[in-house]
Amino acid sequence: MRELVFALEYEPGFNRVADALADHPEARIRSLSLHATTEHLWRVDHASGTPEALDDVEAAFFDSDYYADCLAIEDCGATQTTEVLDHTDDTLVLYTHWERTPTCASVPHMAREHLGDGVLFETRHEGRHYTWRVIHAGDGDVSAFFEELDAAVGDCARMEMLRAAETTPSGDPSAGPADLAPEQEAALLAAVEHGYYESPREVDVAELADHLDVPRSTLTYRLRRAEEHLAKRHAAKTHGPTDPTPSL
Question: Which of 30, 74, 114, 224 is surrounded by the most beta carbons within 10 Å?
Answer without folding.
Answer: 114
